[in-house]
Amino acid sequence: MPEKKILLVSPASPFNPQSGAQQRTALLHDALRTLGDVEVLLLEPTAGPSRLEPPKPGVLAHGLWRQRPFGIGKFEPDQALAQSLDASGLDLGRYRLIVSRYLNPISKLVVPAHVRTVVDLDDWGYHYAPGTLALAARLKSGYAGWLTRRQLPRFDAFFFVSARDQQRHPELQSALLPNIPFNPPARPLPQADSATLLFVGSLWYAPNREGIDRFLARSWPAIKAAQPQARLLLVGAAPPAVRQVWERHPDVSAPGFVDDLEAAYRNAAFTIAPIYSGGGTNIKVLESLAYGRACVTTPHCASAFTSDLASTGLGIAEDDGQFSKRCIAWLAEPDSRRSSAETGHAQIEKHYAPRLFKERVKQLCAAEPGLVGHQRDA
Fold this sequence. Notes:
378 residues; eight-stranded mixed sheet; globular
């Protein structure tokens, strides 16, 4: 009898990795392939009825689950989707392991109790910037977090992207699986004689967009006053109207998605990550160090890496004024930013290498189930 296969459930395909979510899915897919044959089930929300779509290349099946208003039944298994999968011949009981990117997709499936499950809790523990939510919104957010945590006993084991998130759940069988740079250069790029600050990220994502808005309003004017030659390049997909507003600021360019990301890093003095909210870790920080560029960021971003990076390669700014000062200092002191970049790159190779990613996937997915019981229904 052939060995049972592994099923990877994800809202993002691993076969065209452009965004950070797609890249982590691709890395997880490659790591699981070292353990056996892997099939991919795409599961995405829709406002319409639950159904199956024609599968994309390399994908076993593409399911859409009905997303009801007001979060009703958010984590309940979707019976209509289950019927569609059964009718298509996709039997979840034939797998020895089901691994899901995020909690929501696997929650919509009716998983047999004998099938081991592992959930990748990327973007876990969403953090809101101080003062960004009114009381009613905070109460709603708190309820959503409570409801999400209630689902954890349904599954066997979990990946966390940071020690900060993992330490909140010592009761779970879990492994630390940090985000790692995707396909970085074999060697760090040489330092550039440049006055360009670089931001790389999906600019439609609210924490990124809000961080850039705040940086342009509160930090960029002081940087330009002290270093008139400074330029800012914002790389990443964003609506044209938003990019046009940003480009009204002096010497700011927002071209959107670029094909040659290496060229953007090569021409940059250093990067910025003015992110004050969101969950998981900000891969843009690690990617910057992998390319050989130091990064000015916030305590929120840096806290995800304290066990491995500490302040290595990072300029951590406690407030908007300090963010300006750190950028001004690195523009004026190339040797200082070069030293930070070199030290940070060494730590990336030590703690965030593809080899370590695969090892940690293998350790958890091949391990015996823990003592924490599970139930499949919400």
